[in-house]
Amino acid sequence: MTFPASDSSRDRATWLRAEINRHNQLYYTDAEPEISDQQFDALLRELQELETAHPELLTADSPTQRVGGAPIDGFQQIRHTVPMMSLDNTYSEADLISFYQRLQKGLNRERIECVIEPKIDGVAISVRYEDGKLKHAATRGDGQIGDDVTQNVKTIRSVPLSLAAGVPQTFEVRGEVFMPKEGFARMNEEREGAGEARFANPRNATAGTLKQLDSRIVATRPLDVILYGLADAGDAAVSTQSGVYALLKKAGLHTAEKVWRASSAEELVNAIRELDEVRKTLPYETDGAVIKVESFEDQRELGSTSKAPRWAIAYKYQPEQAETRLLAVDIQVGRTGALTPVARLDPVFLSGSTVSNATLHNFEEVERKDIRVGDYVIIEKAGEVIPAVVSVNKKRRTGSEVAIEAPIECPECKFPVSKAEDGIVLRCTNFNCIGQMIRRLDFLGTRSALDVDELGGVVAEALVRRGIVEQTLGVFELDEQKLGQLNLGTDSEPRLFGMKNAHKLIESLKVARSKPLDRWIFALGILNVGTVTARSLAEIHGSIDEFGGSSVLKDIVLESMLDKERQKFSPTTGANKRRTQAEKDELKKLETPIREELATVQRRLVSSGFAVYAKEAKAGSDSSLRSILTPVGPVAAKSVLDFFNSNEGSAVLKKLRELGISPSRESRESKGRGPLVGQIFVITGTLESMSRDAAAERIISLGGSVKSSVSKKTTFVISGASPGQNKIDDATKHGVRLMSEKEFLALIDTGPKIVSAEKPREDLFDF
Ligand code: IVH
C-alpha cells in the first residue's frame, strides 16, 4: 500500500523535474554543465524513487521517462502531417552551379539568398509537439507513414519533453538523429568487449538503435539530434529558413552549430568548400551540405517534384579515399578471443592523418573482396576512426600477390581456433591466452569498466608481455616502485613508465576497488555481457559471489530451453499444424509435461520478481502459457554461468577474495554516507597524483559531493597546478577555503579519522 503524496513530496518532485530539465539543457544544448554526472544521477534517482513511491506524481514529461520503458512487440505507424520528402543529390561544383542557375531562372532574378547546412549522416526524424508537450516522434518510413519511435526518441537528452515558454506550443519539426563520433567509438569498444558485433558506422548504429523495441537499451546509447526544419508551423509566424533556426533555438531544441549563407553561385561554391573543412572538426559525421532557399515565399514559388523540393539540394562530398600497398596482414586477438585481420599498409595520408593500419573486419570479408598481401588497396575513413579497406585495385596485380588464409591456430598462444555461432567470427578458446589477457587488462581500465585512465593498451601490453601481470586482476597487486621501472619500449630503446605515472596508476586502482557491482561485472569481460546486462545482473545479485550458483540465472536458461523443447512438440506451432489429428494428440501428450515444468519455472521467476509476464495469453492459443520477460536474456545468463563455473571464473572469484575486493550493490547506494557527507568540493587546476575525475570519484565514494563552480555553499576548493583564476577569485569572494593537493591526499587517506561529518577541522589545514 502506498500513502498519498504529501504536498512536500509533490513540491519536491516538481522542483526535481525542473532542476533536472535545467541541467539537461545546460549539458546537452548549451554545453555548459554546472554539476557532475554523479550529481545529475543522484537527482534523477531521487525523482525516480519519489515517483515509484507515489505513482500519482509521475507525469508523462518527467525526465525519468527518458530511461526507457518495457519492450514492445512492434512499432505503431504514424501518418506524417506533411510528407517527409527526400533531396536530390549533386556530386560536383558544376552541378551545384546548374542548381543555382535553375533557381535564378525559376524566380526570374539574379540574387537568391540561400542557406547552407551540414548534411548530417544519420536518420531522418519528425517530432511533434502539442500544447507544449512532446506528442510523438516518427521515422520517415515511406515518406507518408513512418514508425512511431516516440519512446526511443524520449531517451535522447537533447530532445525537450516539454517546450520552453514564449514560443508556439504546437508544431512539428524535422531533423536528423545521429550518434556522435566519440560516443560511437566508445559504444563499439564496449560491444566488442561483450563479444557483440561492431556497428560499421555511426549511421548504422543510429538506425539500429532507433529500431530497438526495448527503449531501455536505447537509453544507454549515445544518440543526439539536430533539427533543421518545420513541417507544421502551428501558429508560428516564420517566413524564412533563418526564422526556423531562431524558433527552434528559442524552443530549446538542438540546431546546427553553424550555417553558411550565399547569394551567388560563387559564394555558394565557397561556402561548400569551407563547410568541407569545418565538417572534419564537427563531433558528428556529415556526408555533405544541404543548400536551401532562404525565403519561404521563394520556396513556394519554386515548388517540388513528386520526390523532392526544387528549392533545396544535397551536395555530397566524396568520402576521402587513398590507394596504398597492403604489406602484411596481422591477426589481432580480442578480449573475448575474437581474431580480427588487420592490414599493415604502406603509410599514406588520408583525411588529416597518416594511415598505416586498416581493419579488414573478418576473414569472410577478406575472401569476398579477394584481398591479397601485396595488393594495391583502396582505403576509406567512413565513420570509423580506424580506416577500412574497401576494395582492391586489381589492375595493378602482378601475379606475385599472396592469398590470405584464415588461421587455424591462435597467433599468440597457438590454441586451435573455433568458429563462433554466427559462423563468421573466429575465436581463440584459451582464456589464458596472452593476447586475450592484454586486451582484457586494457579493457578493465576503460571508462565504462573501472575507469583507470593510466591503464592504456601500451601499458597493458608491457605488463603482460613482461610477465609482471599474470592474470588480469594481478594488476591490483602491482608494486609502485617496480611499476615505475616498467619498460614500455624495447630492450634496445627503453622507455620507462616513470614514478609519477606509476603513482597515478596505483591511486586510480585504489579508486577502482570500490566501483559499484555493475561496473565490476562489466569489467570482467564476460562474453555477451554489455553495460546494460551488467546493470541488470547487478540488480539481481547482491555481490559477485552470488553468481556462480545463481538460481535466477539457471532458471532463465532453463526457461528458454524448455520453451524451445515445448515448441518442438506443440501441435499449434510451425509444421506441426499440418499434422493429422491423431498425431497432434500424440504430440500434445509429449508437450504437456514440458509445458507444466515451463509454467512452474516461469511462476518461480515471476513471483521472485525477476520476470514479468510479457502480455496476456492470446485468446484461443496456448491459454495456460504466456511468454515472460527477464532483464537478462538466456544467452547472457548462460555466458555468466559458464564463466563462473569454469576454472577461470573460479580463479577470478578467488583472486577477488584474496585482494579483498568485494564489489556489491551497496557501493552505489553508499553514496550519501561516509566521512565527507555534506561537504562540497570544487577541484581546479591539474593534480599530480591523480586525474580530477579520480579525485572526484574518491570524494564521492567518501560521501562528499563535487561541483564545477564555487558558491558560498562550497566547503573546499582543491587547487592543483595552474588553477582557474575565476575559481580562486570566487573562493576568496565567498570565503571558501583553498586546499592544496597534499592536504587533500592527507584528508582522503585519513579522512574517516580526522574529519567530522559536520565540520572539517580547520586546525589540520594550513590556510
Ligand atoms: S532537409 C525536404 N537538411 O538528408 C527536405 N536534410 O538526402 C528535407 N539530412 O531526408 C531534408 N541533414 O534525412 C535536410 N541539414 C539537413 C540535413 C538533411 C541531413 C538528411 C535528411 C534527408 C536526407 C536527404
SSE map:
Elements lengths: L6 H23 L7 H17 L23 E3 L9 E2 L2 H15 L6 E7 L2 E8 L2 E7 L5 E3 L2 H5 L16 E8 L2 H13 L8 H9 L4 H5 L4 E9 L8 H10 L9 E3 L2 H14 L7 E8 L2 H7 L9 E5 L4 E13 L4 E13 L2 E7 L3 H6 L3 E2 L2 E5 L7 E5 L9 E2 L13 E3 L6 E3 L5 H11 L12 H9 L14 H5 L14 H15 L3 H7 L7 H10 L10 H19 L11 H27 L4 E2 L14 E2 L4 H12 L1 H13 L6 H4 L10 E5 L7 H10 L3 E3 L8 E4 L5 H10 L2 E3 L1 H14 L13
Parallel strand pairs: 2-11, 23-24, 23-25, 25-26
Antiparallel strand pairs: 1-6, 3-9, 3-10, 4-5, 4-7, 7-8, 10-11, 12-13, 12-16, 13-14, 13-20, 15-18, 16-17, 19-20, 21-22
Bound molecules: 2-(butylsulfanyl)adenosine.
The radius of gyration is 29 Å
Instruction: Just give the CATH class of the largest domain.
Output: Alpha Beta
Unreliable parts: 616-620, 667-672, 750-767
How confident is the prediction overall: mean pLDDT?
A: 86
Which ions, cofactors or small ligands are bound in this entry?
2-(butylsulfanyl)adenosine
Structural shape? globular
Tell me how many strands there are: 26
Remind me, CATH topology of the largest domain? D-amino Acid Aminotransferase, Chain A, domain 1
Structural class: alpha+beta
Count of the domains: 6
Measured between the Cα atoms of the first and last residue, the distance is: 54 Å
Reported for the largest beta sheet, the result is: 7 strands, antiparallel
Percentage of residues in DSSP E strands: 15-25%
Tally of individual helices: 25
The CATH H-level superfamily of the largest domain is DNA ligase/mRNA capping enzyme
